[in-house]
Structures are given as structure tokens and as C-alpha cells.
Design goal:
Number of helices of chain A: 0
Order of helices and strands of chain B: EEEEEEEEEEE
Strand content of chain A: over 45%
Helix content of chain A: under 10%
Radius of gyration of chain B: 13 Å
Shape of chain A: globular
Number of helices of chain B: 0
Shape of chain B: globular
Oligomer: heterodimer
Largest interface: A-B, 24 and 21 residues
Distance between the termini of chain A: 41 Å
Structural class of chain B: mainly beta
Structural class of chain A: mainly beta
Strand content of chain B: over 45%
Largest sheet of chain A: 6 strands, mixed
Distance between the termini of chain B: 37 Å
Radius of gyration of chain A: 13 Å
Mean pLDDT of chain A: 94
Chain lengths: 111, 114
């Protein structure tokens, strides 16, 4: 089955700096890669996703890049703000099979 | 539209007992997935139901089971509870788009096993 590894497990950045979280996946047939944000005590919510026919996708301050050859994808957050502090999960899926999540990255924005 | 609703939100059980958790998906959503969330382990997939049929299953022991009703509401059951079953159990529903899409999570049921 699919295996998703996520790094780093914790990340602290100064407010205004950029943050990058990286994930690798094992199944080359995976074709959908979402990122979820979970604020403390809240439910996970989708913030951005990318499909295998696209190399990069942006939405304001967040972007995701996908390298199918290397089987890794990354989340980039620019101009970080205090409200970006949360746990971020990457995930990968093959077709209608189960969505496999990474173990999460706790991002802390230092004011 | 109402979001995904999970009940109960909090519960405490003792080892050996069993527990049933309930999930009501967003109206019109037919797929319901269950995840176990523990510190350091992220979101572990339990199972997914679609139109009352289990479509996918994770690597959990047979003590974990689930079902889905004709109105898409789902329940999961854990029998013979162990201390390690203490976790936040999240339910998520997704719309019938025909392709993989966004999961809408509930707020979870936090289970503590003493």
C-alpha cells in the first residue's frame, strides 16, 4: 500500500519568513495530493491540493509543487502570519483507494 | 448546509468495554471515512463506506468495525477496548463527484480508555 513520509515534524519560522514542508510517497500510481491544516482543537481542513497532471499550484500565500519522477511534493507558505500556526498534513491517494496521510508537521510562527 | 456531526464528542471507558461512535455526513455526501488520530501518528485510516458498503479498510484489528446506513449516517464500534485505543476518532465525508476530492471532517470523538 501507499506510504507517505512527511518532514520536518516540527518547524518554527519568524513571522514574515517562508515555510516549506516536504512529503514523499511510495506508490507511483498516486494521482491526488491534498494538504490539510489542523488548528489546535479544530478539525482538519483542506487548504490546497494538486493532481498528478499538474506540477505546481498556487493560492495566494500558499503553493504546492509536485515532482512525480522523484515522488515528492511540498507545501510552501510565504509571508507567514501568526494564524498560519497549526499542524499540517500531507496525503496521497491512488484512484478511489484510501487516502494515506503523513504524520504531520507542527508549524509555529514566531512573532 | 450543516457540517459533519459526530457524537459523542467526549467519552471515557474502561479496558474491556466497547464503544460506538456516530457520524452524520453532510447532506448529499455518500462516502464516509473514519480516522484515528494520536499524537505522533497522524491520521490513521480505519475504513471508508460508500452507499452502505465498505469500500476500503485500513490496518486495524477486527475489534474495530463500522457500518453505514441507508441515509449515509455511519457508526464505528470498538470492542474489548485497550488503553492504546485512546485517541481522537475523526469522521469525514466527501461529495459524490466521482473523482477523489475534498474530505470534510467532523470535530471528532475523543475517547479515553482507563
Amino acid at each position: 500500500g501507499e506510504n507517505v513520509e512527511q518532514h520536518p515534524s516540527t518547524l518554527s519560522v519568524q513571522e514574515g519568513d517562508s515555510a516549506v514542508i516536504k512529503c514523499t510517497y511510495s506508490d507511483s500510481a498516486s494521482n491526488y495530493f491534498p494538504w490539510y491544516k489542523q488548528e489546535l482543537g479544530k478539525r482538519p481542513q483542506l487548504i490546497i491540493d494538486i493532481r498528478s497532471n499538474v506540477g505546481e499550484k498556487k493560492d495566494q500565500r500558499i503553493a504546492v509543487t509536485l515532482n512525480k519522477t522523484a515522488k515528492h511534493f511540498s507545501l510552501h507558505i510565504t509571508e507567514t502570519q501568526p494564524e498560519d500556526s497549526a499542524v499540517y498534513f500531507c496525503a496521497a491517494i491512488v484512484g478511489n483507494e484510501k487516502l494515506t496521510f503523513g504524520t504531520g508537521t507542527r508549524l509555529t510562527i514566531i512573532p | 448546509k450543516a457540517g459533519v456531526t459526530q457524537t459523542p464528542r467526549y467519552l471515557i471507558k474502561t479496558r474491556g468495554q466497547q464503544v460506538t461512535l456516530s457520524c452524520s455526513p453532510i447532506s448529499g455526501h455518500r462516502s464516509v471515512s473514519w480516522y484515528q488520530q494520536t499524537p505522533g501518528q497522524g491520521l490513521q485510516f480505519l475504513f471508508e463506506y460508500f452507499s452502505e458498503t465498505q469500500r476500503n479498510k485500513g490496518n486495524f484489528p477486527g475489534r474495530f468495525s463500522g457500518r453505514q446506513f441507508s441515509n449515509s449516517r455511519s457508526e464505528m464500534n470498538v470492542s474489548t477496548l485497550e488503553l492504546g485505543d485512546s485517541a481522537l476518532y475523526l469522521c469525514a465525508s466527501s461529495p459524490p463527484t466521482g473523482t477523489t476530492g475534498e474530505l470534510f471532517f467532523g470535530e471528532g470523538s475523543r475517547l479515553t480508555v482507563l
